Every structure is written in structure tokens, then in C-alpha cells.
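User: These chains co-purify. Model them together.
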Amino acid sequence: MREIHVKEITEAVRDLAVRANTELGEDVLRAFAKALDREESPTARDILERLGENARIAREEAIPMCQDTGFAVVFVELGQDVRLLGGSLREAIEEGVRRGYEEGYLRKSICHPFTRVNTGDNTPAIIHLELVPGDGLKLIFAPKGGGSENMSRVTMLTPAAGVEGVKDFVVQRVRESGPNPCPPTIVGVGIGGTFEVAGLLAKKALLRPLGSENPDPELRELENEWLEEINKLGIGPQGLGGRTTSLAVHIRMMPCHIASLPVGVNIQCHAARHKETEL
Amino acid sequence: MEKPIALTTPLTDEDVAKLSIGDRVLLSGTVYTARDAAHKRLVQLLHDGEPLPFDLQGQVVYYVGPSPPKPGRPIGAAGPTTSYRMDAYAPELMARGLKGMIGKGARNDAVKEAMGRYKTVYFAAIGGAGALMARSVLSAEVIAYPELGPEAVRRLEVKDLPLIVANDVRGGDLYEEGVKAYARP
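Assistant: Joint model of the two components:
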């Protein structure tokens, strides 16, 4: 049995919150450069160049790349041979969020649904906990902005809708979202499971690095086909027209009930932020 | 690509009339920040016949809720928020002299119609480019509603804020025309 003090978790979450918001991943920067190679619209090219510049300034000056520093979404993979000392996991994570958002000059964006009164410290955090074999502890911090989250949806299709029905729903979601989720986006798609799992699969799909291949050849083909369809829409960076509406489609799929075909579409803005660490 | 057009606030009807969709603009001078909660309060003041915290004549409003400034800086990241949430309020501000709005995303027909009638232009800033936009902000001062935190009304002094004309006073809409130009069957 390995023992980990929750203070270590607080420290790790604090650092991940700051780094996720100020250091855009190299995979996203490479995707911008690749998009620039193909983009024809002068306005779109100008925007793509500025996004690269924005990421560079954010990293150099350690300021957030976007003022919407998001809801603190934390994925925890906790080894079942780990014993946590010194307090609760939730409290440890939320203390890390509090410190990260305060000390990192990040915006606190969480409020009461009706009164809109801000909680003041960007808590609560959204925690997705999975128990895994072994004595490790992995933390993935994925702050999620409101603009792109607002454009996301879960639907329950009929089994008869099939793969074409899923594709139509995904492409239609991107079309209707237009400029609002800050394109170029990454489209996370969750297929199967239950109502709530379809959304979670879509969110987890966003954690896969850009440019990496889906391990499932069938899904890999669908990802390429749907991305091509999406980039025919002409929405372009910021919705002002262009070839680059999305940088990637990422799909995760699992079996579903014989009566169901759940689909989740989680749209991610170009500030595709996630950082991870292992304790 | 055409060179960017330099503009300084306050804007006149003539300044606004010469802008067309797709023009790149570098905006300098004073701009006021306001987003959801501040718009609600400003329009309530107008309905109650009360004075606003700033004069709208010739002014530009930026839809932004910045992140907190680091020590020694005027502002944190300061990119635009999505504009459609302000559509319900924007025409009343234009009727009182507002000449420019800065945000991201398309506007509804009522806003576009009001832009033609009151000669107001809508600029797109690059959503998610908050660190880049912050470089153009020379100073920031909260002038109303400090209790709203990031949603407080701030007076910003900006230099060469990079913008794109998304809707002009002649009904041009880059969100429609730009997409049409690049859509494929």
C-alpha cells in the first residue's frame, strides 16, 4: 500500500491549473501551422497567425492565453493500492484550484445558476474519478471555457439512424454553432454508453493529442471523413469564412443498449488546454 | 492584404461609414467594457431615466470580462466574449449614440437593422487571443459596478487594438458572406 499525502495533490493541481491556462500544447501549435499551409482566406490566415502569436505571448509572459480560464475539470486515475493521507481528495483538489486561480491571476468564472453570484474561487471543481490497478495517481487538468461548452449537446438517436445519423448530428452541431465556440475547434464525439456517458466520452476524446491517430481503424476513418465534411462548411477561423473550421474530430465509442444510440458532441475551442502529471 | 485602417475614438458617422466588412482596423483611444450583467444594468438605467456611468456618444463598447491583472499590469487576458447575449440590449445603446461594438460571433437581425439606422459598426476581435489583445491595453479603470468582478464596467485606454469589421452600416455581414465564399457542396 503506497501512501500519498493530499498536500501533494493540492500542489499538483495548483501548478496544473496555471500551466494549462498559460502554456498551449505543442500539438495545438503544430495543428495551427498545418492549417495555415492549407488556408486560402486572407482573414483566416491572419487569424491563424495571431493565434500562434497569442500562445507565444501567453507562455512568455505567463498570462492566460484566454481570459475565460474555464471550469476546472479534473480527471483523476487513482491506483487502488494508494492510501490518501491528511484529508479528502475533493477538498485537496479544490484547494489546488483555489490557489491556482488566485495565485495564477486566472479568472473566476463559476456562479449560482439563478442569482449569478460568483463563488469567488472558481470552485467547485468537476472531478471524474476512476479507480485503476496499481499504486499510481494521475491527474489531468482540463479547464473548459463557456463559449464552446455552450455549443455542445447530447442526443439519443434511434438505432435506425446508424452511422449516417450520427455524422449528420455532428456536422449539423458544428454548422449551427457557427462562430460561437471560437473556431478552429476540436470536435469531441462520444458514441454509445448511456445518456451521461455519451457526454463524458466526448469530453475524454478531447484529451487525445492533436495529430495522433485513433487506435481503432474504423473510427480513424470516420474521424477523417467527418472532418472533411465539417471543413466544407466554410465557417473558418472565428466564423469569418475559411477552410479551417475544425482542426480535428476525435471519437470515442462503447457499446450501448439495444434500444439506444446515444451521441455526445463536446466542442472545444482552439485554446485546447489540458495538462497532466503523475504522482 | 490591404493595410489596416487606424482609427481613434470617439468615432464619428463619417469614420464608421467608410468601413466595410473584412477591413482590418487598429483602434486607439478610450473603449468601455461591458458584458451580460453590466448591459442589463445599463439598459435598466435608461428605462428608469437615470444617467449612465459614461456618455455613449461616439463611444465603443467591448464585450469582455478580463482575467485579473498581474502586479504592474493594467489588465490580464482580454479577448472578446460571444456577442449574441448582448443582442437584446444593443439597439437601445446605439439609439443613444454608441458607434462601435467589439465582440465575437454573429448578431441578430434586430441588431443589424439598428446598426444601419443609427450608423454603428460591429468589430470582431479574435476570440481566445486574450494575451495578444491585452498587449494593446495601456490602462484600465473600473468606473462602475465593481461588485461584478470581471463583469464590471471598465474604461480602457487602448493602442492599436487589432479588429476586423464584421458588420458595416450598409448591412454587410462577414459572418454570412465570408462563410458563403468558402463553403463547398
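The helical segments of chain B are 13-17, 36-47, 90-95, 109-118, 130-134, 174-182.
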